[in-house]
Write a structure and sequence with these properties.
By secondary structure, the chain is mainly beta. The protein contains no helices and 32 strands.
């Protein structure tokens, strides 16, 4: 093996050495980038203009940066590294026999296999609304048969452990079955049911990093519950639901603003108790219950930035109600299901590659048969 060690290079001009052709590194270890503070980062250094495509490591932000011709931009990653990739959580839920549970399961979305124990919720709940940034999951409302709750809980997704009290929702207490979307800073809930099991039109938002404050956002066009949701970093969609008749309506909101939801299009079929997962551009909606009460297997997809009707994507491996979804930028994972005949909850986990139409394939199993958990991830489409 040859080694080259150079202390000083001289006589090659002010711009440094220039290599014509490719430079290949055969090391399996690493390459160290130029690094320095933000103030040390300029468009010119020692009279030499920075070239477009230059990269460096910023020691103030602890992020890699790339120069694009007129400014330095942070180089983002598709998902944070938690035990090998983006982490998805199934929080609480319903199980038969046994009723409501407070267990929290987690998976590494890029790696197939069975779910592992994460911790427990403060309160046993199902049909809660799950919202998350890259680090924190917030769980709002939910049902404790036979009553509901206005409690909000949170957890840090990079570790394991139990949820912590976040506060109480003062605007719309005792809600469950709401749709939920989130980006890095804001979480939004849409619709749902109140303590009298009547559907709601309310849209509310919270700041994920803060504690205790819920704000009014607007309304969806008509009261409905058991809504699924997908979102990009800027736009959130609520899909289907019951009014009490089941509908195929899709509406959207702009996450950073406030106001009433607007028409987006329609799902391919009528159904509710659906689940959803998404990349930053595409949302998948898996159907739950038909108007006749039967479980479904079909999956629709939408392009989040483009208004229009949903189109057929493929099928789940197993049909059933409440195929709850979690996702990273590449893969959508469906966690659990509720069987109707006989009435039971399924531990199945299956997944789709979001960019590629087709049927879901096996991923693994939850720690126990579960339906209607709240879900969260460290790298979903809103991030």
């Amino acid at each position: 093996m040859a080694n080259l060690k150079v202390n000083t290079i001289s006589g090659i001009g002010t711009e440094g050495p220039v290599l014509d052709g490719g430079l290949k590194f055969r090391s399996e270890n690493y390459m160290t980038l130029p690094k320095g503070t933000t103030t040390e980062r300029t468009a010119t250094s020692s009279g030499i203009s920075t070239e477009t495509g230059s990269i460096r490591y910023n020691t103030d932000s602890n992020k890699m940066e790339c120069y694009i011709g007129n400014k330095w931009m942070i180089v983002s990653t598709s998902s944070p590294d938690h035990d090998g990739g983006t982490r998805g959580l199934a929080i609480g839920g319903n199980t038969q026999p046994g009723g409501v549970v407070n267990k929290i399961d987690f998976i590494n979305i890029a790696t197939t296999g069975n779910a592992q124990d994460f911790g427990d919720m403060v309160t046993k709940l199902f049909a809660s609304a799950g919202m998350s940034s890259r680090t924190r999951a917030v769980i709002s409302g939910g049902r404790q048969t036979p009553s509901n709750t206005s409690d909000i809980q949170y957890l840090t997704m990079s570790s394991t452990g139990n949820t912590i009290d976040w506060g109480v929702n003062p605007l719309n207490s005792l809600s469950y079955g709401s749709g939920a979307v989130s980006n890095q800073t804001r979480g939004i809930t849409m619709g749902g049911y109140n303590s009298s099991n009547s559907q709601l039109t309310d849209i509310q938002f919270l700041t994920i990093a803060s504690l205790g404050t819920i704000n009014d956002f607007g309304d969806i066009s008509a009261a409905r519950g058991y809504i699924s949701s997908v979102n990009s970093p800027t736009r959130g969609l609520c899909n289907g639901g019951s009014q009490p008749a089941q509908v195929n309506t899709i509406e959207f909101v702009t996450i950073a603003s406030t106001g009433n939801a607007q028409d987006f299009g329609d799902l391919s079929v009528i159904g509710f108790r659906t689940g959803a997962c998404m990349s930053s551009t595409r949302g998948l909606i898996a159907f739950g219950e038909t108007p006749a009460g039967d479980g479904q297997k079909n999956i629709d997809y939408v392009t989040i930035a483009t208004l229009g009707n949903a189109k057929n994507f493929g099928d789940l491996t197993v049909g059933g109600q409440h195929p709850t979804g979690t996702s990273d930028s590449v893969r959508g994972v469906w966690l659990g299901r509720q069987n109707q005949s006989p009435y039971s909850d399924n531990e199945v986990i299956d997944f789709n590659t979001i960019a590629t139409q087709g049927d879901a394939v096996d991923f693994g199993n939850l720690t126990a048969g579960t339906s209607m958990p709240a879900t969260a991830s460290t790298g979903h489409g809103g991030l």
